[in-house]
Amino acid sequence: MSRHRVPTPHDAAERAAQTTLERALTVAFWQVMGRQPMPAMAALEAAARTVGALYRQVAAAHGPTGHCACGWEPDPEADLVVLEAMLAAGLAHPPAGDLAAMVPAGRA
Ligand SMILES: [Zn+2]
Q1: Is residue 3 assigned to a domain?
Q2: Based on the structure, what is the number of domains in the chain?
């Protein structure tokens, strides 16, 4: 509901789940790049388009005919601002754990 959340004990669990998802997506990205090299921007465009498609799918699950009852209400305009900020944050500050460290593993 509110976009301005107060930190809660759930935040640590949520962050851990996010880290798991980020690692899975990163591994999948580099596996495909290893098998099927392509221009850098073509790959990144596909990844960004996929995030958009995932948003559409998740939002559909929360619409009038959706099956999720968690209470989240998609707000595409505001949510896109958040996603753009996360994209910029990913460029500026690699998460600890470090995605850059996975690149050599992806190429090995
Ligand atoms: Zn939900």
Answers
A1: no
A2: 1
